[in-house]
């Protein structure tokens, strides 16, 4: 173990990013003799697995987020900074922020997550937002709801068809969740609240470049999900790579799909931690790490979650999942504590698969536990219980439960707000 | 009664604005033989009395708003249009929308509410938003919360003082509510979540041009409110007209008050209904109406709520209050139904004062029922019950109640989100 730079005082751990990984790491270091600084661009953490429900008007942003200060506020050894990292100096061991501050560290944990990958077509982003932030979720909600209002008044048949069509790009869990939720929202709203429209006029197209949706799940679960989605009116187009995205719709192979709402869920890449370090990243922008989660060649620097390219015992890359980030965070927090306070070496990380899940619609979800699987209404109930449980604090759990029970009974959506600032940003 | 323009078909009532007045009017006309069209710029109505709680991170926007389609969706004779009115032709009896559509009417009800009056200094608005829309409430919340994050990191004493100061302009009910809520929020957040700050560093200044706050209430209630506010740390400056508002603070008389968050609550003016009609409005931009709420000299045109300058039996102008708008809406809806379907004349409107209330802080509110008054903890409880009851539907009532009970017990704030789109609007 190399010497600490601030001999005599408490060792300093800086964690960049307060997502699942960063928070778990900070919590494992809470109330220890280690000085912990958590840096995030936002003042709040976000329960991303339920962000699609904000985008489809079922929950409010505050229902799935919490100030980082509140989550970590009870521990005197943890400091929370809202700031934007611009570079890291691994020799001087400092993290530089946009406002010029330099934060020194003895150990640095990079847990900055991922963002959507447009594979070089970054101009598509404004037409096809992904689902990583509250701003994007609001943007999608706004486009969806506004299109219905416009369609209700449109006299032009082709324009009305475009307004009532959503295209979801990417058949992974996010794409499937969004396609199912948009389809259910649209049909229900039309039935209930719109006089000039018929439910069957609403179209959701799910575009997937590969041969099946939910490719990381076993084939029987993919098939179940595809059947369910087709049943609630989703038009699934497999083997269909996207060629262009415009304000008017999506170009695939030989045809153009006019659409008012386009959602991007076609793959992620790591946030620019590699750029900060001035090293070249691995596939998907991820930082290759050793089995102990340390970044190769940089002493005292670790990466976890979507930022890290970590391999398991068999040399397979661990997937970019919340449970991986969380387990790595807890593991690393405990290991750093033992290392900094007792001189123990950081052991190798082992991932314990808790099962993989995706929700498809009202009453339908899938679980893959490796040796066994679950699908249908019971899987949905389990999904709902697990997600309420994972929500950070008691008030949110209660609020989200009340809203779900209410919505399940009435099929109403509680957050059907068209944001004024998207309509008239200068007012 | 003049002839209807569409003899033989059902009479048409167009209501512009879906606030308290417009909604009450539409509800009174629900399920009748009258065709009702409700036009609003927004897709949702807003429970404005609780908007200050969105601005101070206690509630989410969706908690206090509901899609107009849902509120009115059950009645087949009511059509909801999201659109912006640009002009009215009282001769042709049509309402023109920004997209070129012309909506014909037999009776027109103008219920477009009011906006904040900057008395010719419209450039102050961007520094000192009022509290009329969700966008403004989010803007205030964002400025408040961001200032605490910046203050936590600031090394500059004067700048830190500016960051920790809010100025509320106007000592009416909105100003008092905001000053009390900001003061409580700031002290509690600092105590709980910020390491480098002390609660007594937080400053709230309430600036009032007149000799006392809450001037429309009896003097003993004003005094009670002022004492309570001073007690929770609000610095009240009476007889202090504002001379300038900048991004850095507020200029009053001989001194400049540096502040990070400035809130405008110093008077309202009616929205531009008079412009649409091409007539000159009365004081505060309001349309003078006869005792039957009809606009002088324009057949078939009525105005209610903040839009109207209506006089009571004694020739006094009715105040711009939600209860006035609501009573006028219900009255006019019923009267138009009798007029259009049975040929009855529209009678004179009489206002029934249900009591006037303002909330000052946790455990403190005032009620003025004319002959008797109420203040303190019991008034606050009554205020809370009344406001939960007035929230439109059951789900919202339940959600808001749960949050209030939780907050009352823990003093936590549930919606402490700093909006990313204010930070990085282009992302």
UniProtKB/TrEMBL annotation, chains A, B:
Please give the name of this protein: NADH:ubiquinone reductase (non-electrogenic)
Q: Hey, which family's this protein in?
A: Belongs to the NADH dehydrogenase family.
Question: Which InterPro entries does this chain map to?
Answer: FAD/NAD-bd_sf (IPR036188), FAD/NAD-binding_dom (IPR023753), NDH-2 (IPR045024), NDH2-like_C (IPR054585)
Catalytic reaction annotation: a quinone + NADH + H(+) = a quinol + NAD(+)
Top-rank taxon: Bacteria
- SUPFAM superfamilies, per the entry: FAD/NAD(P)-binding domain (SSF51905)
Q: Which ranges carry the External alternative NADH-ubiquinone oxidoreductase-like C-terminal domain?
A: 354-407
